[in-house]
Amino acid sequence: MLLTADDLKAHYGAAPVLHDVSFGVREGEITVLLGANGAGKTTTLRAISGTVAVAGEISFDGRSLRGLAPERIAASGIAHVPQGRGTFTELTVEENLRLGGHRRSRAEVKNDVKHWYGVFPRLAERRGQRAGSLSGGEQQMLAIARALMSRPRLLLLDEPSLGLAPIITQELFRQLAEINRDSGTTMLIVEQNANLALRAASAAFVMETGRVVASGTAEALLSDDGVRRAYLGY
Amino acid sequence: MTLFLQQVVEGLGSGAIYATLALALVLIFRATGVINFGQGEMATLSAFLCWQLTAWGVSLGFAIAIAVAFSFLLGAAVERTIVRPVEQGDPLTLLVVTLGLFFVFNSIMRFFWGTTPHHLASIVPNTALNVAGVHLATQSLTTLGIVLAVALALYVLFSRTLLGIVLRAAATNPGESRLLGVNVNRMLMIGWGLAAAVGGLGGVLVAPGLGLQPTMMQVIIIFAFAGAALGGFDSPLGAVVGGLIVGVSQNLAATYIDAIGNELSVVVPFALIVAVLLVRPSGLFGTAAAGGRV
User: ipTM, 2 decimals?
Assistant: First the structure.
């Protein structure tokens, strides 16, 4: 396991949002985290990136993340693309990418920027434009490329399909699967579009009101009647 | 025509002084979203330090370099120790804290150097060049030249360098920047340091002409606020242009509108600013987002 979470508990004010959440993310795989709104998916990702206070234990590559500031967790190899894509609207596309690689050497950054322009040609066309002027799909590509500029070992994505047209979402998941295959980057993806996400993933778990209620291989969850009825809608 | 040009040149001279401080205000506003009322006093303190060093026999050029470097550290230290604990708090709290900075630094200067004006030497002799009948004061020209050079350097820093990109990111989206591994606190410290260094340089530049005393920057800072508001509080370019416009309009009004004269001329830039802000609330070069915050 690249990442393990044990008995995470969190509150927003007095309201508990996570009850003893435990799960693992295997290295090199895409794992999806499914669940309805308010199930605690976003809080779970934020617990990993250190942007919400939790009780319990999270360990990454065998080291505890407890008490680390978000920037230290990011520097240790976890990139988190938050809901809403965290776009730096004032910065240009290219500045966004350079920002993502700010801890790495100039030459590496130059190479990787070129690489991501190859993967996402739309970004190359718009390299000098302010990120705020991009379409939703382009902003999501930019957010993912920016996060990957740091060469993370674990990429956390919070609802990448939010606000995107179905065809764009499909393309996005195809690309995520490709990136995972090519670079071996481990991914933990929170997603509402369960069908699409499960087809791109190897493993999955399902959350309901702050608890993990099902987990297994993506294949097993796809064929699980309960999961299918609750999250796949057929 | 000669008179007009003469007044414009002199206006640019005082405008350049406003522009330096306006630039410092804008740098801090961009970094931490706060208006530093202590900026002028911090700049004066740097000038006093420079004076003290020369009094101890340090050469002027070296003293200026030390004073500017000291200003950077002072700005960073103020952010770290005084501003950061209240940074997440109410904007009004921050406002009062920076007002407090004004009094603290003013008192420190009174304590060490008293209220009688000191004479800080200028890096250029105070002579005037005569170009087609217009007198160009070398000190004003130097100040103007340095301000423009600093503005250009800041432009290059913010738009071309990685540090500049990270500074901008940390200022506009601190939360998302942390997710990318940016040490936002360090960036805010650097922002304050840069601002204080620019302001300190301004202090050193204006002291020879104004006479170095604790109140030296107190009127200038008002015009610097005006320049920053006019140009847009989040735009370094706007700060420079705004500062220059304030200086020039003040001078021209005093010369050409008899009813105004010297005493009322200070009002003119403010009237102009009100007019501009009615049309463009975020200032000439500011973005709407910043306009909303001011």
Answer: 0.90
Could you tell me the CATH number of the domain that includes residue A189?
3.40.50.300
- A5 falls within a domain: no
Contact A210, A19 (CB under 8 A): yes
Chain B residues interacting with chain A (CB cutoff of 8 angstroms): 162, 165-166, 168-169, 172-173, 175-184, 287
Domains and CATH numbers, chain B: 2-122+130-293 (1.10.3470)
Exposed e or buried b per residue across A59-83, where buried means at least 16 C-beta atoms within 10 angstroms of its C-beta? bbeeeebeebebbebbbbbbbbbbb
Q: What is the mean pLDDT of chain B?
A: 88
Q: Is the dihedral of CA B285, B287, B288, B292 positive or negative?
A: negative
Count of structural domains within chain A: 1
Q: Inter-chain contact A98–B162, Cβ cutoff 8 Å?
A: yes
Tell me the mean pLDDT in the region A127-133.
Answer: 93
Query: To probe the interface with B, which of A71, A105, A139, A148 has the most B CB atoms within 10 Å?
Result: A71
A/B interface, count of CB pairs below 8 Å: 60
User: Is A77 strand, coil or helix?
Assistant: coil
Judged against a pLDDT cut of 90, whether residue B135 lies above it is answered with: no
Least confident of A138-147, A164-173, B81-90, B152-161: B81-90
Q: Per the domain annotation, does A101 fall within a domain?
A: yes
Cβ within 8 Å, pair B179-A75: no
pLDDT tops 80 at residue A86: no
Indicate yes or no: CB of A91 within 8 angstroms of CB of B184. no
pLDDT of residue B292: 37
pLDDT surpasses 50 at B290: no
Q: Is A51 on the interface with B (CB under 8 A)?
A: yes
Give the whole-angstrom CA distance, residue A152 versus residue A78.
5
A12 assigned to some structural domain: no
Contact with chain B for residue A65, Cβ under 8 A:
no
Q: What gap in Å lies between CA B190 and CA A31, rounded to an integer?
A: 39
Summarised one tens digit per residue, pLDDT across range A202-211 is 999 999 889 9
Question: Vertex A186, ends A182 and A190: CA angle to 5°?
Answer: 120
Considering only the beta carbons, identify the residue of B166, B168, B179 that sits closest to A86: B179
The nearest CA of chain B is from the CA of A71 a distance in Å of 4
Most B-contacting residue of A81, A102, A153, A156 (CB-CB within 10 A), to test interface = A102
Please indicate, yes or no, if residue A4 is contained in any of the structural domains.
Answer: no
Tell me: the pLDDT tens digits for A135-152?
Answer: 999 999 999 999 999 999
Task: Let me know: does A120 contact A93? Beta carbons within 8 Å.
Answer: no
